Amino acid sequence: MRKPKVVILGAGYGGLMTATKLQKAVGVNEVEILLVNKNDYHYETTWLHEASAGTLHHDRVRYNISEVIDRNKVDFIQGTVSEINTKEKKVILEDGELEYDYLVVALGGESETFGIKGLKEHAFSIVNVDSARQIREHIEYQFATYKAEEEKKEERLTIVVGGAGFTGIEFLGELSNRVPELCREYDVDPNKVKMLCVEAAPTVLPGFDAELVKYAVAQLEKKGVTFMIGTAVKEGTPEGIIVAKGEDELEEIKAGTVVWAAGIRGNSVIEKSGFEAMRGRVKVQPDLRAPGYDDVFIIGDSALIINEEINRPYPPTAQIAMQQGETCAHNLAVLIRGKGEIQSFTPDIKGTVCSLGEDDAIGVAFGKKMVGGKASFMKKVIDNRSLYMIGGPTLVFKKGKFNFL
Amino acid sequence: MRKPKVVILGAGYGGLMTATKLQKAVGVNEVEILLVNKNDYHYETTWLHEASAGTLHHDRVRYNISEVIDRNKVDFIQGTVSEINTKEKKVILEDGELEYDYLVVALGGESETFGIKGLKEHAFSIVNVDSARQIREHIEYQFATYKAEEEKKEERLTIVVGGAGFTGIEFLGELSNRVPELCREYDVDPNKVKMLCVEAAPTVLPGFDAELVKYAVAQLEKKGVTFMIGTAVKEGTPEGIIVAKGEDELEEIKAGTVVWAAGIRGNSVIEKSGFEAMRGRVKVQPDLRAPGYDDVFIIGDSALIINEEINRPYPPTAQIAMQQGETCAHNLAVLIRGKGEIQSFTPDIKGTVCSLGEDDAIGVAFGKKMVGGKASFMKKVIDNRSLYMIGGPTLVFKKGKFNFL
Known about the structure:
The structure is a homodimer. Chain A starts with a strand and ends in a 6-residue tail after the last helix. In chain A, helix 1 (13-25) runs parallel beside helix 8 and helix 1 (13-25) packs across helix 9 (372-399). Chain A is globular and about 75 Å long. By secondary structure, chain A is α/β, with parallel strands linked by helices. The first copy, chain A, has helices spanning 13-25, 48-53, 119-122, 129-148, 166-186, 210-222, 268-272, 318-337, 372-399, and strands spanning 5-9, 32-37, 41-43, 62-64, 74-78, 81-85, 90-93, 96-99, 102-105, 110-111, 158-162, 194-199, 225-229, 233-237, 240-245, 249-254, 257-260, 264-265, 282-283, 296-298, 303-304, 306-307, 312-313, 351-355, 361-365, 368-371. The first copy, chain A, has 3 domains: 5-109 and 266-349, 3-Layer(bba) Sandwich (FAD/NAD(P)-binding domain), CATH 3.50.50; 119-261, FAD/NAD(P)-binding domain (3-Layer(bba) Sandwich); 350-405, no CATH class. Helices cover 32% and strands 26% of the residues of chain A. Chains A and B meet through helix 4 of A and helix 4 of B.
């Protein structure tokens, strides 16, 4: 009898959790598991803001997939997914094709620029190791060039962050710690450096506790960040951005570096493959399968799940993606064996902590509000927990964060 | 009686040697000594190719001037010299004026582009800490961007070095050691990287022993450098360079980085101040004074001294600049005291070693030819000797090179 073939697309939090749980749940004779990923490494998406700011080396935020998968049970292919042909049950790669019986689409999200002109061309996004590393180098190059050039362009030392959501704020937390180091490294006067956070919404970190948000804003302002809240970005240009000022007026902000951190959408492969989706996100069934497909699970950034309590979608977090991976692996095992019970996915939000740099954070965990060192400690515990859940203690030991203050 | 005032412009090899020798030779009551320099640090010009390639941090190639001058005897002003008014015995700074009784012009050289179009705008030069650091960051940024961009521009990984003289070859030696590191750091395929050396002259390292040159070329070629000898650069463009190919044909070479290392000239302040000069270099008298000026010494890159044996100027090296500094300090002491004998300057070339990277070199020292590890060792001894001559054993201990293989 032919073994069923499970193909998992993406080795992010969701995909890798599915693979590592499934390899434990099933025997080598029961199923063929194939993991497909663009790179031969997994990266901690939630740590990318650190690599982007240059406060943590990019090699610290990634590890080889081979370190956590059981090669006896899981095959790995490095490849880029172009499209899924659900009728023929095939995955089209940039250089090949794969057949599947069961498919897990755990392809990560993409930056969402909401059609704002020029952002794709001129702004950076914190989306993967390549882009994080490029942001780090870009900022360093701006500092080095400013110091070396005869006619100084002050705007080289202006860094605009578009978006005061989680990514924007966490990046600013790291960046404001990094700037004094950059000034020393490149002999630049710290007073010349500007950090701006431009956010269209009327508040920083929408959805977060107001008291904690106030703390975060004050801390970042103390470290040199200027907030422009309720300010919509209208355009990205080679020189910076154009924002709305009042009703009809526009204002140009010159900036050597613009990081767009205001939106994330699902993967564009979702739409290309004909799934019904909103901004690349499919409203999945309770068992995480795509509506109308018995053989396709969608998890992570491309899955949309409504939080019934507030009637809004859950944000696509690492925590939820990993929990989805666990449910997905369970449900796959049930389908493969034809016995057991299909589970419905229910997120179990243990807490949310937003870092404000290595030594500071705000958060809610186990129903308690926290700021400063305590919250920062909790953030590192959470970061280490991601490693533990996928790779066990060995991975925590190799890649964990132990610089507790 | 008013103490005579000696003003020393520039804290490079020549200026700093003059200051440190003079402070030992004269008493605090005999003379007022003022050292003027653009930065508050001295840098080892002959190590800048390492900082540019990124094989040695730029902080390793510089030290604070205050570490080597005796503040009881020498005053230091950080300032940029605009012009010298020899009639009024004044130095015009960007933000002030200084009077002198005796002047030592030890302002360093500048990159010479021989009027080739576009080079000043589009090529980098290894001239100071700022430019070295910018080259390092530029190359890193090219690698990071290549890896991150969707449509790859292969030319980002092409580095053109204009000039196969000392600086060009030493830079290529470091760069070819650095490229494998860069490829690892930025996940770039080493086969995509190109290093080109374009030289108009018919040979690499003109004036060097032919056998040693052959060794150098072979070693650099082994590390991936391609030589285009007898090839004149006609233009620098935003995309790279245009070279002469045969008699009338031109060829475009696309390159993300162009480093122009083909020429050095004296300081432009020399011409602005009315000294008779060729490319910013003044043919000084045997005692190192400018012809027609009893109170102005010119040493280092802006001084021209003919090697009578071959009837060609000595190249402006650190070795010669430091020896000039010694003679200059002696002659100043004689003038100040009105006794003793003015010395004529005679270079004492102890040897010349051209580095091919951390672990390799070619050279002639004490009349003997050397290659490989032995020559590389000698290079480090020479580097440490510069430190020793200006700052004694303390400075060697702090800044010296001890990574002998």
